[in-house]
Amino acid sequence: NAGVTQTPKFRILKIGQSMTLQCTQDMNHNYMYWYRQDPGMGLKLIYYSVGAGITDKGEVPNGYNVSRSTTEDFPLRLELAAPSQTSVYFCATLVSTEAFFGQGTRLTVV
Amino acid sequence: GESVGLHLPTLSVQEGDNSIINCAYSNSASDYFIWYKQESGKGPQFIIDIRSNMDKRQGQRVTVLLNKTVKHLSLQIAATQPGDSAVYFCADIIGNQFYFGTGTSLTVIP
């Protein structure tokens, strides 16, 4: 049981490039979330999903897209990377009030 | 949008003393409040939660107090240990959305 797995752990992107941050969970949880965490700040909700085929915007969705074709996977897509998207990205699942987080993806856009 | 904030960004306590970390929230519709601990380079870890219809909940060495009148939440850590040094976030759940506050960095002085 690996819990929540994020890949890659680190990535450097050039402005305008695109990439997909992967998130996979093996706990069969319906609720999944993507957050970004800027230095010294809290986690800001980007997108979330309450089940396969359903996604919704959070606080800061601009510049991102998500999909949820299966219960296990919840990838986050950056189409045109911008320096403002430099951050640490966390994926999480939620059961009742207990959240399980991945180890994070540190993204730098230069 | 939701605003979940903390009164103090940093807190230093002597080992063995009690710590109190505070959090203010703005949305009366919150269903649950949760405290998370985040160590450097890791994702947040669940500490304790409290339903919005409760005013106190105790765990192992931790107590969460909820004052709905003034929209204030606190986390009390008894007999603080060096391993408690971390950033602490309060979070709340409103419907399917899951929001985090800015965080308080707790440093335990040996």
Q: Can you describe what's shown?
A:
The complex is a heterodimer of chains A (110) and B (110). With 110 residues, chain A is mainly beta. Chain A is built from no helices and 11 strands. In chain A, the strands form 2 sheets. In chain A, strands 2, 4, 5, 6, 9, 10 and 11 form a 7-stranded mixed beta sheet that branches. In chain A, a hairpin with a 5-residue loop joins strand 4 (31-37) and strand 5. Chain A is globular, with a radius of gyration of 13 Å. With 110 residues, chain B is mostly beta strands. Chain B has strands at residues 4-5, 10-14, 19-25, 32-38, 45-51, 56-58, 62-67, 72-77, 86-94, 97-100, 104-109. In chain B, strands 2, 4, 5, 9, 10 and 11 form a 6-stranded mixed beta sheet that branches. In chain B, strands 1-3-8-7-6 form a 5-stranded antiparallel beta sheet, with no helix packed on it. The mean pLDDT of chain B is 88. The chains are: A mainly beta (110), B mainly beta (110). The A-B interface holds A 31, 33, 35, 40-45, 48, 50, 56, 58-59, 90, 92, 94, 97-99, 101-104 and B 1-2, 4, 9, 32, 34, 36, 41-46, 49, 89, 91, 93, 96-103.
Shape of chain B: globular
Most extensive interface: pair and counts? Answer: A-B, 24 and 25 residues
Average pLDDT rating of chain A:
93
Oligomer: heterodimer
Q: How far from one another are the termini of chain B?
A: 40 Å
Q: Spans of chain B with pLDDT under 50 lasting ≥5 residues?
A: none
Keywords for this structure?
heterodimer; A: 110 residues; mainly beta; four-stranded antiparallel sheet; 54% strand; B: 110 residues; six-stranded mixed sheet; five-stranded antiparallel sheet; 11 strands
